[in-house]
Amino acid sequence: MLSDSVAISVPLRSDDETKTNINNDPPAYENPQLDFSGEWKDRGFAIAFWIHTIAVILVGLILGIPTVISHMKDISSYKWDIEPLVYSLGGAAVVSGIVSFLSLFALQLCAGQLIKCSFLILIIMQILMGMALFFVFPPLCFLPGAFILFTLIYISCVRNRIAFAEAHLQAGCASLRSHSSLILVALVMLIVEFLWLVFWCLMFAGVIRVVLINLEPNPTSNLGIVLYFLIGKLILFLLLLSCYWGAITFGNIIHFITACTVGDWWFTSDGSGHYGMSNSIKRAFTTNLGTICFGSLFEAIIKTLRFLIGDGHRKNCLTCIIDCVLRMIEKLIGYLNEWAFTFAALTGQGYVQASRSFIELFKKRGWTAVINNSIVATTLMIINLGIGLISAVVGGTIIYNMIAEASENIGLVMVIAFISFIIGILMSSIITTLLKSCVRTVFVCFALNPAALGATHPDHLQKLTKVWHKFYPQEFTNSGYANEFKEPIV
Hints:
Elements lengths: L12 E2 L18 E2 L8 H30 L10 H54 L5 H17 L3 H17 L2 H34 L7 H46 L9 H9 L3 H22 L6 H31 L3 H15 L3 H34 L7 H39 L1 H7 L1 H14 L1 H6 L12
Parallel strand pairs: 1-2
Helix pairs in contact: 1-5, 1-8, 2-3, 2-4, 2-11, 2-12, 4-6, 4-11, 4-12, 4-14, 5-6, 5-12, 6-7, 6-8, 6-9, 6-12, 8-9, 9-10, 9-12, 11-12, 13-14
Family: Belongs to the CTL (choline transporter-like) family.
GO molecular function, one term: transmembrane transporter activity
Main location: membrane
């Protein structure tokens, strides 16, 4: 059992814990202080986010609903036969959900084979694209050919590290299976994100209507036209920032909860303490919500700026350079947030402190997660596409057999198949997004305290230490753990 003042296990310690076994402790950069006190981290950002969320809901209800109702009068007399739609889309959702859940077991049993198959499928898809372009416009065939060449070079560089990715992916699958309720939490958060998008769309419609009614440019004054343009851009910026901030924050909340549950699987043998599911959800919506909102706001600002710059009809060299710079900053902030939130979930630190701590830790260990993450991400992307195609076939088949004169309504069948494809992607992304968070957290936990896994899941510790000895012996030696975890003798 974990109390508020007791650390997990050496080398992790709380602030008031006395130092023991100094000679055997790892370096200080791998020995972060835990902060699971009831104090809210980055409180101001949490308060701002809740005020912003309430404002979006109220404006959507007050201004948005009347606007939507007024526009729906024209189509209210149109009769819709929704039964085939419900059966087709519902069937696609059920099938994709089942296949997604089964893919979790498949990844744990044969992750290495699935990683290799994903590379093969990627090459086949590029070949098929090249064949299609050959019949449409032959000169474009060189594009898939270039992609195939780059893919083969990439595979040749990482093929020897598939076992490294496999060990981490299997550990991630095991941690997710031990907390299967996390899938339900992710599904609830997906519904929350959908509701957020609905309320934001209502707010957007209401605000735009009010702006169009009350804000009119003065055609006789150049200054009036400029002010109208600037005010319009400012309103659009704030609306888009609101959408991105909410969506990114809710997505990062499930990442935070996932990191906590992996910490529970790694460090403790029961579901109690700071990493338990109920406590993790509480932390994500209270004491550490400001941490999540803080990092998400940076990402939302960059995404909004990129949208506004790319929205212009005129593009020149300067806007392309700015867009490229913003794209790089967006990738950097997104990468930083993923690891910072993981570290904050495991240690209870605020955003700035967690960012500094994980950067210092990875400097000493080396940035070896880049290759591993790219391999895992490619595999999970192929799984998403495969489940999406299965869902599209199911949805299209059901609607084709239920509607009258289906051959004459092939357009409707294609639309339902496309919507089913999106549903399949969304359902599978619940599992794959959780798995990416799990793998990332496994990597951080191994950097923090591999010995703790020996007390909870020694079989996974043996697999991880084996691949670290094999593929990153220098980094493993520099970490100070190579002497403690000897390479298994074959």
